[in-house]
Amino acid sequence: MSRFFVTDPPVAIREFDETEIVSDKPPNVVWIRARMDVATRGKVSGELLKLGENGQGVEGHLGNNNLALLLHNIIRWEGPDFVDEMGRVIPC
Q1: Cα angle, residue 87 at apex, residues 77 and 31 outer, rounded to 5°
Q2: Which end of the chain is more exposed for a tag (fewer CB within 10 A), N or C?
Q3: So what's the pLDDT on residue 8?
Q4: For residue range 3-56, what is the model confidence (pLDDT) as tens digits?
Q5: Cα 1 versus chain centre, distance
Q6: How far apart are CA 91 and CA 27, in angstroms?
Q7: pTM over 0.85
Q8: HSE value, Cβ hemisphere, 13 Å, CA-based, for 7
Q9: Burial (Cβ within 10 Å: 0-12, 13-18, ≥19) of residue 30
Q10: How far, in Å, are 18, 36, 37, 38 from residue 50 at the CA level?
Q11: Contact call for residues 32 and 18 (beta carbons, < 8 A)
């Protein structure tokens, strides 16, 4: 299948399994891409190598690979820890 057109639905990553753990609040859920498309792969690669100051040279940010993957592959988040007192969803 082509990576240009990824149609796989997002995958829910739950904080805990509600059928196994009893809690007074529902689990937080982070939705991630099931598979990266070409555009997202380019964004992740772009986070790892950037132009230096004044456009001179290239700086490598090779330790940021996991952060770059998270930034560009998390679709949305849900749950009690991602909502403020007014009921608005807040970024994590």
Answers
A1: 5
A2: N
A3: 86
A4: 666 778 999 999 998 888 888 888 999 999 999 888 888 888 888 877 777 777
A5: 23
A6: 16
A7: no
A8: 3
A9: buried
A10: 42, 21, 21, 19
A11: no
